[in-house]
Amino acid sequence: MSSEWTVHGSHTVYASPWVELDLVDVEPPGRSRYEHHLVKFAPVAATVVLDDRGRVLMMWRHRFATGTWNWEIPSGIVEAGESVEAAAVREVEEETGWRVAAVEPLAYSQPVGGMSNAEHHVFLARGAEFVAPPVDTHEADRIEWIPLDAVQGMIDRREIVAGVAVTGLLQLLARRP
Questions:
Q1: Residue 156 lies in a domain
Q2: What is the pTM of this model?
């Protein structure tokens, strides 16, 4: 017996450049058909930037949707026609003013798999060069280099709560020798 759901069709209820809400006619195995909400997002690219002193580049910012302040890593939506790697590099510079030369894959997650197609691609950049003040000045109140050794405690104290940041930072911590 297959546990794959049957999709009979869908229609869009709302769409914008950032989010789409669909009602999908689904039928789980052995169950009746019903309409399920599906929230669609463009992929997100994020980067953990690690310097040669064992510090990560973090942004202190407010999130109005949750009413919280927290430390985050640079991240943003992948633009049409852009690779996830290019988006990760671009977002670091736009949001922090630091330029990274290259990124390598660190983590991949689907944060709300049952209700959304959201994909988070997290990369690691080793080193960065400050090139100019950030273009996206509304993104953060402060930009600082935080010792990687302090990150686990910050997550425990809920000073780092954004899923993409937690995922990437915990992956980096798990891979340390």
A1: yes
A2: 0.92
| Amino acid symbol at 125 | A
CB-CB neighbours of 33 under 10 Å: 12
Contacts 24+ apart (CB under 8 A), 34-40: 36/115, 37/115, 38/10, 38/115, 38/116, 38/117, 39/112, 39/115, 39/116, 39/117, 39/118, 40/116, 40/117
Identify whether residues 62 and 88 lie together within a single domain. Answer: yes
Range list of H helices, the chain:
84-96, 148-156, 163-174
Is residue 27 domain-shared with residue 64, that is, in the same domain?
no
Q: pLDDT of the chain along its 177 residues, tens only?
A: 578 999 999 999 999 988 999 999 999 999 999 999 999 999 999 999 999 999 999 999 999 999 999 999 999 999 999 999 999 999 999 999 999 999 999 999 999 988 999 999 999 999 999 999 998 788 889 999 999 999 999 999 999 999 999 999 999 999 987
Q: 34 and 52: one domain?
A: no
Number of domains in the chain: 2
69 and 115 fall within a common domain: yes
Same-domain check for residues 72 and 36: no
64: number of Cβ within 10 Å: 6
Q: 56 and 64 in contact (C-beta within 8 Å)?
A: no
> 68: part of which helix (H) or strand (E)?
strand 68-72
